[in-house]
Amino acid sequence: MKSQNKFCQSCGMPLREDPQHGGTNAEGTQNELYCSYCYQNGAFTFNGTVEEMQEFCKGKMIEKGIPTWKAWLFTRGMKRLERWKK
Q1: CA atoms within 13 A on the CB side of 47
Q2: What are 23's strand-pairing partners?
Q3: pTM for the full model?
Q4: N- to C-terminal Cα distance for the chain?
Q5: Are strands 30-31 and 39-40 parallel, antiparallel or unpaired?
Q6: Is residue 67 within a helix (H) or strand (E), and if so which, with residue range?
Q7: How many CB atoms lie within 10 A of CB 83?
Q8: Is the pLDDT score of 40 beyond 50?
Q9: Are 23 and 34 within 8 A, CB to CB?
């Protein structure tokens, strides 16, 4: 069954951009909510606040050559993703 999620529900990255096509659950199955950068072996790889995650992701995007303003724009809606909803 194909996932209905188009974006990682932790960082917001388009799942089509994930080289592993999604994270992994503890038993080794593929997780369709989170990317492989955010979720491995049934656990999150980053355990900070949503604000810290936004800064981390912005930094990674800037390293890859994405303009600062665009990196900011891409991380703005992160608080609305499933992982960060209160």
Answers
A1: 4
A2: 31
A3: 0.86
A4: 28
A5: unpaired
A6: none
A7: 19
A8: yes
A9: yes
pLDDT (average), residues 35-59: 96
* DSSP 8-state assignment for residue 29: P
Report the distance separating Cα 63 and Cα 43, nearest Å. 25
Question: In this structure, what token pair is assigned to residue 34?
Answer: 């989170």
Q: How far apart are CA 84 and CA 77, in angstroms?
A: 10
Residue 29 has pLDDT above 60, yes or no: yes
Question: Which of 47, 57, 40, 29 is closest to 83 using CA atoms?
Answer: 47
Element (H, E) at 48: none
> Tokens standing for 27?
């038993």
- Describe the chain by its helix, strand, coil percentages, rounded to 5: 40, 10, 50
